[in-house]
Structure formats: C-alpha cells, structure tokens
Specification:
By secondary structure, the protein is of the alpha+beta class. The chain contains five helices and eleven strands, in the order αβββββββββααβαβα.
C-alpha cells in the first residue's frame, strides 16, 4: 500500500502541533539492598519524607529514612518483585488517601481502595496519610458527650467528642464488643465512626461488618481493613496481584460469614 506525500506531511504537521517542549525532572536512584519489605536506595538526594517512590513493575514505596547518601523506603506492594540494581524514581507526591462522605458505608484498605465490590469510591478529595495534628488552641473544645449505650460506662466514665479513650483488656474480654456497641448506638446522632481492623482475620472483620449492617450502623461507619492474610495489602495499584488477592480474600470471608454464624 503506497503512502501519499500529503499524508506524510499532515502527520508531521500534527506531530509538530502536539509537541510538548516542557521537560519532566525526576530524581532517579538505584536499589542497593532489599529485604523484609524495606528497600535501601542510593541516589535519591531530592526525595521528600513520606514521598511516593516508583519501583519497576508499578510497585510503589514510601520514603521513610532519609540518610546522607541513601534513602530507606517501605515497599507498598509485592517486595519479592524488587531486586538489587532496580531503578527507582521519585513522584513528587506525598502518600495520600481519599476522604469524604463517599467512604461512608464502605470497606476499604489502608490506602482507601474499596474491598467490598460496591464499585469505585466517587470522591476527588484527598489528604496526606501523615499530617501534623492541629494545635490545642486551634481545636474545638470537648463539649458534646458520646453515649456508648452501655449504662455502666455512660454513668461512670464521661466521654466526649474529640476525646481519646483507651480500652485495655486481655483477649476475649469484650473490648471489640464495647466498640461495636458504641458504633451501633451512634445511629442518627450525626457522628461518623471509623472502625480500623489491623492484623485481624478477614472472616472476623466480615462478621463485624455483618453485625453493623444488621443494625443499620454502616450508614455512618467506615471500615478500614489491614488484614492478616495479605502481607502486601498496601500496594497502591488496584490491579496488582496483591490487591486482587486482598479483594478475593475479603469476598471469600464475606460469603462464608453466614455459614460460620
């Protein structure tokens, strides 16, 4: 098939019109050591604290330890895919998570990606995962009580919105039950509850979510899951094998909750 000269000219003109003269500047380093989910990188002098770093294969990391010549990074994904000599690039972005009312009623991973098969989270608002808390003077005073729904606690222990409380006890003594009852009791109170499950079995988390749904408490609750079954749960790409594995594990635990109860 012959190509006419006018077609070649039009293609060249289109490329010239779409040419972008701006250049992108990125710091590039090399992995010198990797192990236990931590990578030591040489050559990233301009990396920022908590900055997202791009490893080969779409795996991301977070710059944590900024030394004079090296950077220690936490690998947020499959660490087995990283090896010595790999090229690492900075992204100029701090680790951030989506925020907003769109997360209400959803089960998400630590980076805000959905695990409940209810579709994507429609929000454009994000906040850094690590940020400085407001000072004491700038904070609103604690003036609104929070009722747990447990008469003994509400009568003896004053709890207010914005106040920190610690529940201490041995295993299987009812610490989670108190927290779940408190979340259920906030229905219709205009209070957003965030239940964070760290290192728990996904079957246990699925049973907890089922309880919240049964009492209509998921409408004001966000469940964040960093499950024990997925050591690479913090991969930043929703299409990585680790992220797909996390969603499959959650679906399996969610479907089996009825058989376990």
């Amino acid at each position: 098939m012959a190509i006419r000269s006018d077609e070649i000219i039009s293609i060249i003109k289109a490329n010239i019109d779409n040419f972008d003269p701006t250049a992108e500047t990125r710091n590039v380093g090399t992995v010198v050591e990797v192990g236990d989910g931590i990578a030591t990188i040489y050559g990233l002098e301009g990396a920022l604290a908590s900055e997202l770093l791009e490893f080969p294969g779409g795996v991301m990391g977070m710059a944590l330890n900024l030394a004079e010549e090296t950077v220690g990074a936490v690998i947020l994904g499959d660490a087995s895919a990283i090896k010595e000599g790999d090229v690492v690039k900075t992204t100029g972005r701090i680790v951030e998570v989506p925020v907003g009312a769109a997360l209400l009623g959803r089960v998400v991973d630590p980076l805000g990606r959905p695990l409940d098969d209810k579709g994507p989270i429609e929000t454009t608002k994000v906040r850094p995962a690590e940020r400085i808390a407001p000072g004491v003077i700038a904070r609103k005073g604690v003036d609104t009580p929070v009722q747990t729904g447990i008469k003994a606690i509400d009568a003896l222990i004053p709890i207010g919105r914005g106040q920190r409380e610690l529940i201490i006890g041995d295993r299987q003594t009812g610490k989670t039950a108190i927290a779940i009852d408190t979340i259920i009791n906030q229905k219709g109170q205009g209070l957003v509850c965030i239940y964070v499950a760290i290192g728990q079995k996904l079957s246990t988390v699925a049973a907890t979510v089922a309880i919240l749904e049964r009492h209509g408490a998921m409408d004001h609750t966000i469940v964040v899951v960093a499950g024990a079954e997925d050591p690479a749960r913090s991969s930043t790409s929703p299409h990585t094998p680790a992220s797909r594995c996390a969603r499959r594990s959650w679906r399996t635990a969610w479907r089996s909750r009825g058989r376990a109860s």
